Amino acid sequence: MLSGAFSPTHTVPPQGTRTWPAPDPGLPADGRLDPGLPVQVVSKAGAWAQVRCSNDWVRWVDGRTLMPLSAEPPVPVAAPLLASTPGTVPTAGPVPDAEPVSSPQAPAGVRVGRADRVAVWLPVVGAALVVVGAVLPWFSVVDSVNAFDLSVTRLLDKASTASGPDMGWFLLPVVVVVVGPILGTGLPRPLLALLGAVPIVLVLLFLRLYASFPSPRPDLGAGLFLTLVGGGCIAVAAALPRPGSRTKDPTQS
Fold it and tell me: 61 with 20: CB under 8 angstroms?
């Protein structure tokens, strides 16, 4: 994690420049910095430069395209080069050329790529599926039964006759994932993992209870499956890189 105040050393050229999560030309570019944006070069690896934006967003760029403050625009680079710095392994330079990738959730001056948008919106889709699944039928006997008709106490103890809170209320907290698109950074991974695990665990507990039903068992409803898929989406999002995550300099110990 970078420390100290932001101190710009360069600006982004008039045509803008692409960003990568690591100094590896085999990785796809994940965003683009806007023309004229002031940045601070914090480290270099061959033709690569790790830059810091005013909002502490850190990414790797083609260092040959950056303009030192009060300098003229550099000559466009036509092809990648192979360069090295003392004490480092030669590193292939980034390949210039690409169209901007934008996102309404990007930090000021930074355009975020598709991977970042997936990390932000996948848990929102999952939460929507969980909420819809909670109100749709989980199974039908005479009347349809949804998550708000099932007692958590009964799920934990199949023989229990005590009343308890309805399972549906334990599913509704997943709506907090909408904070991710508002902030543009997503929720912490541990919180996403917990929010995704709750619907999955409740569905598995219900299926254990369902297995004890006498034959012929009632038909399972769509609500059960939507809740399971929604929880899975949130759990998968917890494993994705956070939007705008900072990249550690590999030359640091």
Answer: yes
Q: At which residue do the structure tokens 């790529």 appear?
A: 113
The 10 Å Cβ neighbour count of residue 83 is 17
Q: Give the per-residue pLDDT at 209.
A: 82
Q: Which residues of 144-171 are buried (b: 16+ CB within 10 A; e: fewer)?
A: ebbbeebbbebbeeeeeeeeeebbbebb
* Token code pair at residue 110: 């930074």
In contact, 129 and 229? CB cutoff 8 Å: yes
What pLDDT, in 10s, does the model give residues 41-86? 999 999 999 999 988 889 999 999 999 986 555 555 544 444 444 4
Q: What is the dihedral of CA 98, 73, 37, 90, to 10 degrees?
A: 60
CA angle 15, 94, 72 (to 5 degrees): 40
Question: CB neighbours of 118 closer than 8 A, spacing ≥ 6?
Answer: 240
